[in-house]
User: What shape does this take?
Amino acid sequence: MRAASSDLPLVFDDVSLMAGDTIILDRISLAITPGAPTLIVGPNGSGKTSLLRLCMGLAAPSKGTVSWGGRTHSPGTRRAILFQKPVMLRRSAAANVAYGLAQAGCPRSLRARRTEELLDRVGLLPLASRPARRLSGGEQQRLALARALARDPEILLLDEPTASLDPSATRFVEEIILAAAQSGTKIVMSSHDLGQVRRLARDVFFLVRGRVCEHADAARFLDHPSTPEAAAFVRGELVL
Assistant: This one.
């Protein structure tokens, strides 16, 4: 059961992130609210991964505040994050999910059933006993999603989860993401794929050089971008 408190809205208030003298994120103010997926887009090096790490609480802002449901200190039990290249534990697919359930505090007596349910949810139940590191790239990403969903997260943060996948594997992963969103999980996902933005996103934050250059609903961003940088990005031009 989820706790009564919520980690939404997730709010950045004038947040900057520095690495030495280098500005990674620059004075970002935004609010991520419940509902359909929010996508973070922008050129490579724009700060998408760093923004997701701040959303998760894996990094602290150099300036400004990040808050979850009005709280600036949140243990992260309501959130899960999946990076582009997930780490597979040296054990079976089922054991990877069971580990995620154990970390989430699922009672031992329920883990076998929940493991089956989660593997079935991502289409991997027939491969339950296969070593996770012998799965294909798409299968590993689906297994990583099952392991993340084992936490029953309110917010699921995804860092370009289909960047290295073929179209068939991408479709399977997107279906899992949409199903999670429809079940009430807030998806916050970075992507460089404008087609994926059209397929998945309710709204878009467009980052350039560590700053939010534009925030709009997905259709307006794709069809009528309001800034020169966003317009160039949508046209497929390089944005520096």
Observations:
- The chain has a mean pLDDT of 96.
